[in-house]
Design a protein that fits this description.
Strand content: under 5%
Oligomer: single chain
Number of helices: 6
Helix content: 55-70%
Length: about 120
């Protein structure tokens, strides 16, 4: 089980890297350190993750998402990257799973037309 979760964590990170490179022309190191973490929306989502309101944060992101604005793709990628860095225990304690991170990330990529980067 630990190996499977570790593998999924690496797969999620690889998907995020691929979308960043193709869609936004950046790497994770360049990613949104200034744009996302300085945005009030990004900070709000991060606080919700820290407070354990992961499901509500994801619902809020899906409701507010504007597919015509690539900055929302960056916000979503940052959100799922932050979730992916949470421990399995923390995710489980707040009724979330690594599989849900994978599914949410794939859904976001499909909405923005980058599903070809995350297909199986």
């Amino acid at each position: 089980m630990i190996y499977q979760q570790d593998w999924l964590m690496r797969q999620i990170e690889a998907m995020i890297q691929a979308v960043l490179a193709v869609a936004l022309g950046t790497s994770a190191n360049e990613q949104t350190a200034t744009q996302i973490e300085d945005s009030s929306y990004g900070k709000m989502l991060e606080k919700m993750i820290d407070d354990g309101d992961i499901c509500a944060a994801e619902d809020l992101l899906f409701n507010d998402l504007d597919q015509s604005d690539l900055s929302w793709l960056q916000i979503a990628l940052d959100f799922y990257s932050k979730l992916n860095n949470c421990s399995d225990d923390y995710l489980a304690m707040h009724d979330f799973s690594r599989e849900e991170i994978d599914q949410g990330l794939r859904y976001i990529c499909t909405l923005f037309g980058y599903d070809f980067l995350v297909s199986n």
